[in-house]
Amino acid sequence: MTIDELARQAGVTTRNVRAYHTRGLLPSPRIVGRVAYYGDGHLARLRYIARLQSQGFSLAAIGHLLRAWEQGRSLHDVLGFEEAITTPWSDESPEVYSRAHLETLFPEIAQDPSLLDRAVEVGLLAREKADFKAADPSLLQVGAELVAAGIPLAAVLDEHEALAAATDRIVRRFVALFEAHVWQPFAEAGLPSDRLEQITETLRRIRPTASITVQIALMRAMERAVAASTGEQVRKLLAENAARS
Prior knowledge:
Elements: H1 3-10, H2 14-22, E1 30-32, E2 35-37, H3 40-54, H4 59-70, H5 75-86, E3 95-97, H6 99-105, H7 108-111, H8 114-121, E4 126-128, E5 131-134, H9 137-148, H10 153-188, H11 196-244
Antiparallel strand pairs: 1-2, 3-5, 4-5
Helix pairs in contact: 1-3, 3-5, 5-11, 10-11
């Protein structure tokens, strides 16, 4: 990537990229002729810096942390680890929707604009000037299908918020497993450089493992819930018919 492409993907300015390099926070790019080229490791480092800044760390503190972290470890291994923890889990690209398009998908918005505000509040949409950006367009499409099936938009938004909270609890369980059985022993051993590649590979394997586990658990739970619901509805119908008889 050129510096412009790197900055765009990382969501920062080219000035930021140059400043981080000057401060020693970003490794030097590969120079071909007079052009500087950056790789995925540089993108991972910028995402890592952004994540630490969002948690309140100053650039000076981040620089101190990175220098300590890199001591005795190859830059390749360090950047590989940072890439494993910062690469987005979804490859879905954000999409921008006009208000008119959203009203086509969700007609209730035209009568009750507060529903649009609620969609922003729960994180399904973000305002972008006069339009709205969806980080996960597929979620928006699922919502549109539920509304088309007859479920009120307010109920769909409530369910999304509840589902997000439930998912957070599941994710914390996976993270706790990693922390207790992988990271903590690594940290207690003094973060040995010869084990960093193994930790990175474990992080990479957790991604599909967690997704598959949750997907299978959800399918099995849906099978049980739908079967139970169908049986209950049939029992109610039979009881009503018997009462009429």
